[in-house]
């Protein structure tokens, strides 16, 4: 191996935290990923030419209007207007904004050149039940190319009973992304009635598996949630049911499982600043490439959001790596 | 933001009506929408060159023969003959008539040039139950181009258990509309067994979500129903279950959620004139671009319908905006 | 309107038979239909150059071997051999014979030029239950073009829970028919478990709706069954549940609903001659363009069938109209 | 009609055996079938240039490894090796061997030119239940062309609840066969939970219907099973429930229903020689074109199988017809 | 037959072990398989130019991250990093490494030229239940060609209620493999609720059937599990329920059923060395072409794994055959 991976190995099942979730390590370098020129050019634009730079990613998603409905905008009524997020992305110097075709076609033209675009290619509403979760396409890689996007996003519901349709749909997206040289960012979410019986979607088993699936299916970047230890872990398959890792150690394990897929950490619901910044540091320490914070950003008033953004930039600068 | 959107923001959940449903505002200008030339040319034809003009839309739909069956024509037997609606659209100077392929192929040739055509591209009958509502295609964007239509219409059943097929089908329509430069009008209807458990299809939660979904999926124009406050709102997700907005305020909220998708208000079942005209004024005050009245129009005798149309023209003139 | 349609109109629900099912009227002229040249040329061939002529249609269907099985041929064993029907069509001077691909490919070559062909494009067997009725393709419009057919036939099961697949399939057929200029004849049958709860498939509600659906979806000709008043009408949606029309008046209503789709009346099971001829006259009086009699024809011995055909020709001559 | 079909006809339902299952008759001549040149050339090769000739067909199928599993080869362990059947077909001078893509790609090259190939294009295993029987494709007509096959085989499960998918799949196969000029042999099997309630898959109702369906859907040759009268016939639809025909008469009825589709008789499970040869004679007397015997052939030791083949050749010579 | 297959044959059902599972025999030679040039060139590369050579195959699979999740890597934490397996394949001189698109795109570029690649084209997670097992595509043959793979792998779940979709999907893969000249390796796994009722997926009935299905559907190489006799065999269809073969004899039977599809033996869960090596010898004696050991390899520490590999090379040398 060209990069050292010196870790003790063992013939039995190892649940020693030092093995399972080793110490912080460097992020994969873009050079090591064997990327085609188009993907490399666009990832360098996102990781070095925009946003905090230095090989990090700070992404602002605004797909909640589709995924959750306008309900998420009550916390900050300004945020109902997509220009709020676009302007936050521009003034806060985010690496990119991530959204669906409608918000791209109707608003991006005013921000093109200033804010890189990640076009989300599939989604669904929160209205029908989630037990057979599946997100149909809302756009295509060709749409992304036409609009000048720098990457595409795809949500895969790992473990859903509908995962066969999901994987199949992803193949087409992945191939088009290969064909056009667009980086593929996979939102890897454990979901559906089957995972509910194996420790739930917030457990390490679920998130760890989801990260690996994204790697296996060809993600260039994978967005994962931060694992939350809970009593439900006891229902996970062995040895996950007896690992008892902290959130931080669990997340390090997830980053390992993602291999050469760069890792984005999801923000989830809005939490206090100190907690948020601690999570960011822990993520970057674990080898994450960046964060994707939506509600934690745009549910705040503009000035408060911009102040938080500045703090994130400062943190990210500490983790800068050459390309 | 280039246009001011000065509204107080808040870190907590805001249910203050002044925030949730702010005062009337101007409609989005065509110029702000970033439209491709074909869409712009055709929308200007519909909004300025035909009908009441001044950036408004007065649309006459006649898809009820498919959606409800001939049962809707009993109130005015003349209306069973599609020429009744075509002639009403011509003499009443409607911005356009909206109908399915069969009524376009067999009748439009007699009115081409006089009445712009919106080709409805999907539909279904009212015979099977609605719990998994889905409208298959009845025509394509290519049909619309061939027939000289100025826009296409698509019905999406937001929240239906079949919404995955629906969204997927809409992607193809939306892409063809982008390709040929035809404006896409989305009939955004909450429907199906899931929404019935969340306040029902006439509640603000449902209609507000539907409007946003249309925006997210790429609608140029969205047709929505007017929200009707009722006891069922209590079953909506928070904070919708405690908003207690008037119909007018609720509708203003919906227009906000639709963003840069122009809003058409649905007429629904036939109501008395005064009630109807009040609804029109309230809609235009809220920022709607126009109305789409079917049964409220052609279930009336011809002279009565034409008289009502003249009143609508008069109202619309008050809301004229430059392109 | 260019053609007078002088009927009293009413603001309330009209169930006055004189309004609902007005007096006999002329059939739509081919000229009024806005047909493309290919469709016009072929329809003129069917309506004027073959069969009884004068704008009428006398069609011999032989799709029962697929739809019902060989069981229908026991009444007249000769009829098991498709040549029986082909020769009946030739000697009885039918406007066309309607059948599936197999009977076209194996037998039509002996009758080409003498008997125009309507290729049925979808069908099914009677073996599985009918509650989710759907007829898959058995051939395509390209097959019809290759074989020299003058029209294509498609069966749509209006109101079936599978109608979404059905409508979708029909779109492809309709578009190919438009593309190649072949008239589209739609067998519009209410069917499935949903219509069974709304008065059944023989009620006016069902047949009236089916006729309109065919018009809306682009049929050039629609084949409908003759409505049969029964106690089940009471389960139809209002106002159908209280119309109490005679079969004749009900059929006139159906012809109105079909608009500019020419109407073919189905024969159904074999009935006595007097009854049959009365039905033919009533149909033509109501504005039908012709009849499509299968079992009523070829379940009879050859000479008897030919004698009946001559009587039909005589009746049709009374209803001749210029093109 | 160019060929006489002198049979008494009747206005009522005829269940007179002399009408239902008339006396032996000649097979359809290739000339009467209106075949395209490619189909004609290949059918003449199968019916005249190979095998017993004289317009007959002696086909050796070896698709049981897929349809039933290796279980069928226990009776004669040699038969597990596909070369056993290929060599039997060569030395026994069969008209063709019928098998799936794998046995064609891996073995046919050693026998090409000696043994004509019928490529079976769909199949399934016997492991899942048969109530919704459907055989997916295992190959395509293009595969058959590439391999130099002289015909293709397709299994349709008539009456299965999945018959809509089946018919649709068959359309594509049939069209490709038309396009490339390959004869289409349809294995027409009544199957599934619906037919089980109507007399079962071995009754005349089922087999008769299946033969007709093959004709209607475009089969050039149809393979049917020999009807087996049983008590279950009483559950067949009228008048099948009261016909009480012998197996021989029932089979004559089936051949009539198949019309101009040439008929192949299935062998089914292994039976004693005398019984088998009697069945062959009865089949040919009834107008069958040939037989397709699998287990009855290759479950026998080689010399015994070859001896039987010689007897079949002798019988077939008696039924020779000019092309 | 060109190669002698002298085995006594029998007219009755033979369950004599000497017939059912004859003595060891030679593997099929590449020359006998009738392969197209592209397949032949690539198979010779895998069987002779890399790995142990002499016509044998030693394959290292690393698809467990998708199929089982990261859970399989706990036994040897180093193995979580795909470079561990790649380096093991390189240093252990494996014939090829088998994995999915993501591990190919992100890592193969560092080992290209050293380690031949088998691209797995379909897969699934272990999260949803297995009763209707089906693996959707994760990549295509075109991906394999683009990446320079020497073969493709496809998992078919024989007997699953979803096998119709599976077979259909396999046809496309098989045709593309034929078109591009890539050898097709089929992972033939009995799976699903139906096989569970017929002796289970580890019984001879299941595995024997699966091997034959792979041959019938066009596999060039088939991967099978080693049958495990158990009490559940009594639930297999006759005569499997009374064969009482040893594992070794049962496996010989499976190799016979696979015919000219080369056989790879699966390793399954990790077992002690002596047991493993005995299984390898028995497999090669039975006519297998090689083995595919995953967890038995990379769940071991590196040096232990390399030592085992050397032993396998030594064994394989004993079974070398000329091309």
Keywords, please?
homopentamer; 323 residues; alpha/beta; eight-stranded parallel β-barrel; 13 helices; disordered N terminus
Structure commentary:
- 5 copies of one chain form a homopentamer.
- By secondary structure, chain A is α/β, with parallel strands linked by helices.
- The first copy, chain A, contains 13 helices and 8 strands.
- Chain A has an 8-stranded parallel beta barrel, surrounded by 8 helices.
- In chain A, helix 7 (163-180) links the parallel strand 4 and strand 5.
- In chain A, helix 9 (204-217) runs parallel beside helix 10 and helix 11 packs parallel to helix 13.
- Chain A starts with 16 loop residues before the first helix and ends in a 5-residue tail after the last helix.
- The model of chain A is unreliable at 1-11 (pLDDT under 50).
- Chains in contact: A-B, A-E, B-C, C-D, D-E.
